[in-house]
Every structure is written in structure tokens, then in C-alpha cells.
Amino acid sequence: MTTVARQHLYHDASSSSSYHSTLNVLPDNPNPQDTHLHATLQKIDQLANEDVEMQAPLSESSTFLVLDTNILIHHFDIITQFVDDAERQSLPVVVVVPGAVVYELDGQKNREGLAWFARRASTWLLEKIKERKMVRGQANEETCKASRNWKIRVPGEVFGTERMNDALILDCCLYFGRSRRTFVCSADKNLCIEHATQGLPTITPTRNWSSREIAWAIFGEYGIELGHFGPYKVSYRDPKTNKSAQPPTAAADVEDMMMVDDDESVAELPQPSHALDLLHLQVIDHFTRLLIELVGRVGGSEIRGSKDGGTSASRYAPRWQKQGKPYTEWSVDEIWEYLDERRKTRLTSPRVDIFLSKPYSSRGARRGQDWSRRDWDVALMGLARFGEAWEEDSIGESLGVLEPHVEGIFAMQMRPTGI
After folding, report:
1. Distance between CA 218 and CA 201 in Å, rounded?
2. Type and span of the H or E element at 391
3. How far apart are CA 59 and CA 67, in angstroms?
4. Does residue 318 register a pLDDT over 50?
5. Alpha-carbon span 389 to 291, nearest angstrom
6. Across 142-169, average pLDDT
7. Peptide bond into 350 cis (omega under 30)
8. What is the helix (H) or strand (E) element at residue 396, kind and residue range?
9. Cα 301–306–307 angle (5° rounding)?
10. CA distance 202 to 214
11. DSSP letter string over 97-158?
12. What's the sign of the alpha-carbon dihedral 313, 317, 323, 324?
């Protein structure tokens, strides 16, 4: 059984004379604390259906990788690492997020221990789908169903309540499998068995799963250089819903070592293993993404049209203009400087931008465990006030679901140091 509860997607047919029933979409009036998540998931669904023709043309060697919800919730950092690695090498792989998975993410918004991970996943998905590169959603018509709309259930489709979404994911895989090699990536053994019986290859997480292992499953037969893909990395997981990830064993799996040229391998740096370090890295990643999204809305054409930088900018021009790099690549301190020039907020100690900087990347930046409990509270409170000043719902919502994780870690008996 999957560790992510399946949600009911359909309206019940009101009468036997009804020809079909339609997907019960995201609520029209979400709870106030879910406004941004609701808007994010709606936008993902909208982008998937805007214009399928706008997707980049596929090569004959393209491969589809269809994700289940449990991958985005419990193995988020691994799948994002794989996407980054594959995009950097311009590999012919397309990551597909079924429509059923988008709605399942909404179902996790108030589940204890999972809401934080659902928001991380939905924010990343929207960012990647907007880029129109390697990640995309499922359009309504991308289905094998006779109705030509995956959201419509017609008579004769008898899905068990618990397996209904699995059937929709299978339908998505079968559709894309018509034209290209298609894998489903899931931790749900039952779902994988269903796909295997249909002749669809599956990828299931292992104990020390990594971007490299995904690459081996998809491209191993083509002799791809696995050293270009990241190794296993430990990530923070809620101890209440998932056993904490452990550092890799000394003896790596044989398959994980196959075909890796030491000269080509990516640098394998010491990994953090303290819970505060791991959660802090997720906090940095998520809130930086939200702040970049805010900069894009606030700056508009001013920042999108300014890419010259360098010598063409006045000596008195702001730093972001002198550097001339896309705002999506700005560091946290650059983001904070740009926004603070437009709307001043009260300084905190520690400063929010320093707290959200990667450890040792700038003066004062440090690991999660090196910040005291008071530092965590002050920095996150400063971030909350910043969100209120900008009327940015995404920040407040995310802080609300992050709080139980911070509380839980500080309530644990922890090791005094990490790696």
C-alpha cells in the first residue's frame, strides 16, 4: 500500500440516467490557509491544458518518466536532482506529472507531516512546468479513455475506491507509451505490478536511491556516463510518517558503482546528517523559490527585459542591474536587496537573508544546527512579517506547515554535532 493516501476525484453520479460523471476539481473556495497552494495547483492544471502544441518537439529517442505522488512527497530531492542533471546534459527525457497526482497533492495539504512536502513539490512543479523544458503536466485529452478526457468517468469503468487514482496513472502511462518508451516511477508496489502486467517498465526507490540510479534504469543500456548524475544524498523526512534517511553504507550497491568513470564523476562532498541541517536546506530551497516567484511578479518587465548588465549599466545602478543575470539565478541576498528597496521591512538578528543563505556561502551563513532555537524563531518570524508586508500568502502558508517540523526536531534528543 502506498504511503500517500489516495483521494476521491470524482463526483458520485446523482442518478442512473447520468451518462458520465466529471472530476471533482479543486474547491472553488479553499480555506484561507490554503489559498496559495490552491492557486498553484490550479495553475499547473491550467498550463497542462493551455496548448499542448507549445511543448517542445520530441526526438525519436525521447523517453517519458511518469511520476506517482509518493515520489514527489517522499523522494522529492532525488527527483529534482535527476531533473537538474538531465537538463544540464540536454537528455531526451520528459518527466510527466499525471493530472491525478496534481489533485492528490491538494489532498495532502492538511495531513500531519506531509503538508510541508506537498507544498515544496507543488511550488517546484509550477516553476518547472512554466519553463516548458523537461517537466510537464497531463492535458485532459492525453488519455486512452473513449471520452477523450481523463477527468470523465463513463459507464463500464469500475474502479475500486482505493485504486481509482492508480487506474488514472496507468491510463496516463498507457497514453504516453503509445508513442515513446515510458516508465512509471512509484514506491507503490501494487501500482508497479499493474504497470508491469501492461508491459510498462517501472522504477522503484531503493534504500540509497539517487539520481544516478534513475539514470541507470532509463539510460544504462545506452552506455551513458553515470558519473554525470548525483549520488545518494540524505534528506530530511518527517520521523512521524517516514523513517529518517540514513547515510549510505560503506559498501555501495554494485549497480550504483557500475560504469562510473572516476574522472567524470561529480564531486561527492561530505553530506549533512543532522536533522536541523537537513531541514534548513529544505527551508532555503523552498523559500528562495517563493521569493524568486515574488520578484518576478513585482519586477515585471523591469527585470525580465534587463539582461545586459556589465559595462552597459551605470556605475550607480543597483547590483542586480549591474550583474545582468536572470532574476531566477539571483542569490537570496540579491533578492532581499531588490525587494527591500521597494518595501522596507524591519531588520532581525539574525537577518532573514543570511538565515536563508546556504551554509558558508556568505558571511554569517551557517548550518541549521549552528543556529540556536532563538535564531530559528526570530528568522522565521521575520520571514512571516516580510510575507505579511508583501501580502504574500505563499510564505505564511508554508511557515504554518513548517512549524511542526521545527518544533518536532527541537523536542528530540539530538546529537550535538552533524557532519
Report:
1. 9
2. none
3. 21
4. yes
5. 13
6. 76
7. yes
8. helix 393-411
9. 135
10. 11
11. E-HHHHHHHHHTTTSTTTHHHHHHHHHHHHHHHHHTSSEEE--TT-SSSTTS-TTEE-TT--
12. negative
Residues near 282 by Cβ (< 8 Å), separated by ≥ 6? 77, 116, 120, 235, 236
For 48, 113, 133, 329, the CA distances from 128, given in Å and listed in that order, are: 12, 25, 7, 14
C-alpha cell belonging to residue 8: 476521491
With the CA atoms of 274, 279, 281 and 287 taken in that order, what torsion angle do they form, in degrees rounded to the nearest 10?
-170
Locate cell 516548458: which residue? 132
Q: Which residues contact 370 (CB under 8 A, 6 or more apart)?
A: 359
- Bridge partners (DSSP) of residue 182 are 64
Extended beta strands in 232-337, E state: none
Closest to 68 (Cα-Cα) out of 101, 25, 19, 34: 101
Percent of the chain with pLDDT over 90: 56
Whole-prediction pTM: 0.84
pLDDT digits (tens, 9 = 90+) for 269-309: 556 778 999 999 999 999 999 999 999 999 988 887 655 44
Distance CA(316)–CA(69), nearest Å, equals: 49
State the pLDDT at residue 157.
Answer: 57
Choice among 49-63, 274-288, 339-353 with the minimum mean pLDDT: 49-63
The contacts of residue 46 (CB under 8 Å, 6+ apart) are none
Within 13 Å, how many C-alpha atoms sit on residue 257's CB side? 5
Q: What is the distance between the alpha carbons of residues 240 and 391, in angstroms, rounded to a whole number?
A: 32
The pairing of strands 93-97 and 63-67 is parallel
Q: Which residue is associated with the grid cell 508491469?
A: 196
C-alpha cell at 199: 508491459
C-alpha cell belonging to residue 173: 502511462
